Amino acid sequence: MADEGNMEKLRKLAHFVTPYKSRLILLLCLTATMTTLGMMPPLVMKYVIDDVIVDGNWRVLEVLLVISICLPIASAAMRIAISFTNAYVGWGLTTQMRKFIYEHMLKLPMRFYDEMGTGKIMSRVMGDVASVRGMVTSRMLGIIIDFVSFWVALAFCMGLNWKMGCLLLVLLPLYFLNYYGWRTPIRESISLWRRKMDRVSVGLQERLTGVQLVKSYGRERRENRAFAEDTHSSLDAAMQSASHRAGYYAGTWGVSGFRNTVIFCLGCYYVIEGEMTYGAVMAFFSYSSRMFQPILNLTQIAMRLQAVMVSVDRILEILDFPIEIKDREDAVELPPIKGHVAFENVHFEYKKGEPVLKGIDLEVQPGQMVALVGHTGCGKTTMTSLLMRFFDVNKGRISIDGYDVRDVKLRTLRTQIGQVLQDSVMFNGTIRENLLYGRPDATDAELIAAARIAEIHEFIMQTPEGYDSMLGNDGIKLSVGEKQRLAIARAVLTDPAIMILDEATSSLDSLSEALIQKAMGNILKERTSFAIAHRLSTIVNADIIVVMDHGEIIETGTHRELLQIPNGKYRQLYEQQAAGSIEEAVEAMAG
Amino acid sequence: MESLKRFVLLYIKPYWVRMAMVIAMATITSSYMFLLGFISKITVDEVLQLKPSGEIVSDAHRQSLIQADRRPRRDPHAAIPGLGKEVTRPKTRTEKLEWLGWIFILYLVVRSCFATINWFYTYSIAYVGQRIVFRIRLDLHEKVQKLQMTFFDRQQTGKIMARILDDVGLLQSEITTTFVETTRHVARILMGTVILLTIDVKLALLAFVVLPAYVVTYKLFQRPIANVFTRFREDYAEASGFLEERAKGIRLILSYARERREFRDFFRRLIALYRLGVKQSVLSSALGATCSVVGGVAMGLIFYFGALQVRNGMMTVGDLIYFNMSMGNLFMPLVALANVNAVLQQMLVVISRVFEVLDEEVVIRDKPDAKNLDNVRGRVAFRNVSFRYTETGDYAVRDLNFVVRPGTSVAVVGPSGAGKSTLVSLLMRLYEPSEGKIILDDYDIQDLKISSLRNHLSMVPQEPVLFSGTIAENIRYGQPDTTPEQVMDAAKAAELHDFIMTLPEKYEARVEERGSNLSGGQKQRLAFAMAVVTDPSILILDDTTSALDAKTEAKIQQTLDSLMEGRSTFVITHRISTAMRADRILVLDNGRMAGWGVHDDLLSESEVYRLLYEQQQKQKEEVADSYIEGIMAMAGQR
């Protein structure tokens, strides 16, 4: 049953392999031939000893020399050909798969990224794909070689002496016995060791990141002891697995030793009896070890196959993730946005049974600024995500200038909406590249104008290479405020008709806060905008304040209007927040 | 090489008995294949008595040649009684079978002996390797714990991790094997050389001409393969980095609808990887192929000339087989020895990295006569304190001079980057002042035991750090012997108790790695509870309330006020309104003191303070305006 499930999964990945079908067959033939060629040298040796030396047929010796020199050359040539074909297929496959997965990923909804997390995505696209490649190319090749060697070697053995050949088959189960006996202990001790090492590594990571905490509470010695304990228990596990493995190897050596002894002596017995030549004994000897090597490999392949199936599962986790957000077949281009936005009875839930938005109704006129206010988790960010169609509503509709966002082409929708998040992302690259991200064809003049609007031009000019300074790992480090202003410049450059702002909650110093306020003021003019607001000044200046609580709009209106509602939520929030500062302010004014 | 010597003395010497045993075993096992070859030779020559039949050399002549040739080399056989005489005389069937019986037993004994030795050898190698690694890891960890913050500023966490775990793990697999296997290979080559020479000098000389070709081929390919490999790794890392960045910044990609271009960029990187990947595997298979050609040709030639030698009666058939097996046994150690330098270099890099950490100077440590403080009143004085993070960098703080009286509070304000956090780190002795002194009560903090100093100080950081474990464990972190009641009291004081009680496992609920299952406010309150538990004489609050919502802040403020009573407190803040609550305000600007006093005085005395105040005031006025507007509107409504 499990196998059927696996077959089903493999079939899903099969279309990656299809284009390489003919090459794979070629690979198969080449490999089979090479393996058979590799079986020749013992035969040559047999002839040298039996026919040439013992029987005195010296004229054949030169021929055999030529053969024994040509054989490795031929198989070397084949080996290179195989390796090339193999690499070609394997890397082609990897590239195609990664490409396909990435392409698919870019179509996936935000939900995917939230659920999966960067680390997991990375390990799937890079590690798991590589592991599948390993399976298809080198493992598969290994299996073919093993399969061919086993049968060819068996055939040679039987041909040389069928009685001894039968004996080999009788000895075969001993290997399996040894393998199955040790398999579970080895596997268990390795996974125990991995768990222990994970523990060590997680602990260490935490302690290093939080080194200041460790130091400020003077806990160094205790941390040392904890680390020693964890490491020691991982050491015990490592030794356990080492001893199991040594046991397994000793078992294998034991069985092989017994097999070789029996074959050698039995062979010699047949030589004495005249049933076999010594050269044949030597050839038999070589073939028997070639016959058993595949058995040793095969037992490992079962384990590897399991690991690969895990990788396949994990890749399919991405590929089977439904593309929820895509253009409808009859999607139209969204004409330039004027800025009328309407939420009509919008319902939304990330997880079934946990509604995030419960019937949102909101109409925004062109050019108005909307401040979304409420506690964390009340659905503010969700509203803006729905507007950009990162998710689709479960019920109701959202329209821009009368167009339902689901009826227009995604591209035309998203390029007309600008977004500045509180934790703005900048990619590795120059400042210019980052600013041009949304509009690669903008001129330098436009670029500088946008930076000026975002109040970041001066800062950029202070960096060593101005607009060509590198950002990211090797480049200049940006503060939260600088990042946000760069993000504003990036958004301004695309001249969006609708702006979405997520104000930073983290405390900025007053100077950068003032600059950001100014920059935001500059760009919000004459644009419909939504601000997830944390600062009173932003809220107070908004055209519409939307107070949200648990996925519902509980109050809307201007600052003045909302303060008039006795015991209104907004008034409560406001009074709490303002309580301290108002007194001071009133005092100060009085003073 | 110096570091290698040090490494051997430090880490391998303690295990020298085991190590010597392992090396001894390695030497013994290296003779394994030769022994088997020798048994084959005896079987062929003495038991089976295979003889070449030639048309050219007459039987009598050949016999004499063989005898003349063999005499000097008969010595080893002499140990086996009665062997010498019977060589020339053909044995009967029964004799042969009897001999075969002995061979069987010998063969079995050799095989099982070696299986046992090999088992012990494998285990011992793992034993020594694991233990060495264990010691190194402990030493590294202990060292890292001792090191000052400047070390952590310079090194990324990931790099330190890699050193303690990955690098050292690499050592584990390499260290013992390199030491031991090298001995084994050398032993094998020496033995093999002697054996080849004793069997047949001419043939041996031929082998010594061909064998090095094997090594040369190997060396020839090594560099290009290493180059491609390095480039592949770099490109791979770059592609991974690209992907990671994009996965993190997916919202940006989506909102600018840049999917198609992103896809093209990634594909370009994939193609580069593809090319290198193919190149890499073709190169390494070419190496393998060339080696097998060299090996194959060598074996072919040996067999050819060997057969001729046998024909000429210079060798027995058994000798030829023995020679052949012995020579085949030399390829592997030759390659390994050719590689030993590369492996050694790699190991040296790791070892020197280990020592780099171990040799890092511990700047901040207890003086020999460091004092233990039992009680701290809480007087803190900075005397001409200056500090810079690097020797050549700008000063982070400069000429700080102030005194905090016991039990009073100081607010530290200033634009970001003014040196507020540095000041606190200096006080905690996470860094050592470049110039000047910090005095606690009557002692220079450098004269106190670090543990004693830090026991009396508690900091609630701006971005709290939590460790995975239960909530109670986290709260107890600074004071592991705290009773559950005290933990609960601390949680209550930090306004966290009610939240904890809503969790199914209450105080035993797990805190995930880096506290990812808690909100910012909850983490902050947990950090606060941690500080409460330690009952410090000096409390440091680093912008502590900024992540809290107004309601919790108001609640916590009361606790804060009561906690601050009787303790010297440093409050780092952006908000002037918070600063005004403190007994004294310290204004920092660009690392220098730009004001010290109370609010009213500072307004007139400190330019920086006034600017900060005015900026915040302006925002507040806006708020106040709107509030008054609101009140009026309300009034109007009534």
Q: Could you write a compact summary of the structure shown?
A:
Chain A has 591 residues and is of the alpha/beta class.
Task: Report the CATH C-level class of the largest domain in chain A.
Answer: Alpha Beta
The CATH class of the largest domain in chain B is identified as Mainly Alpha
* C-alpha termini separation of chain A: 84 Å
First-residue to last-residue Cα separation of chain B: 90 Å
**What CATH architecture label of the largest domain in chain A applies?**
3-Layer(aba) Sandwich
Q: How would you sum up the major sheet of chain B?
A: 6 strands, mixed
CATH architecture of the largest domain in chain B: Up-down Bundle
Low-confidence stretches of chain A are: 585-591
Q: CATH topology of the largest domain in chain A, which one?
A: Rossmann fold
- Biggest interface in this structure? A-B, 156 and 160 residues
CATH topology (level 3) name of the largest domain in chain B: ABC transporter transmembrane region fold
Number of helices of chain A: 20
Strand segment count of chain A: 12
List the main descriptive attributes of the protein structure presented here.
heterodimer; A: 591 residues; alpha/beta; ABC transporter transmembrane region fold; Rossmann fold; 6-stranded mixed sheet; 4-stranded antiparallel sheet; 20 helices; elongated; B: 638 residues; 2 domains; 66% helix
